[in-house]
Amino acid sequence: MREAARRAAVSPGAPFRHFPNRDALMAAAAGEAQRRFRAEIEVALGQAPATDPLGRFRAFGLAYLRWAMRNPAHFEIISTGRYFAHERSTELTQDNAELIALTEQMLADAARQGLLRSSDLKRIQIAGRALVYGFARMNLDGHFPRWGVEAGEIDRMAERVIDLFIAGIAKP
Fold it and tell me: From CA 102, how far away is CA 135, in angstroms rounded?
């Protein structure tokens, strides 16, 4: 709270004039982060052909990673439960459910088109989520230098990792 107030150049108690408690403030910050994240996803999907579900799945994953790497504090607040109870926010819960449904739909479309090696769409979806979340966490936690990935290479590595995943789930 003190850091947020400091960054906003207000007194430490000022945020509580607008929010009844810390959870309400954090929920509002997470809501704004989620809106920005969602906008990034929408732009990426708008540039991917509607008839290419795996291309859309790739675009979604890359948008997720790029947004998380450019917005580490926002990524942190919407991706962990450290700051407040996400399940208490109807807005976040609904938006998250819509994004999950969107990935489900992309994978279902890919399956209908015969593009996937496996019919276990839930496993593919969870593996994809684990991949982008894990990659974003590795970046946020500063792991890449230990793995020989320089700061200027991280974005390209993200593309390569997503492409490797897509190649692994797609039929040859």
Answer: 21
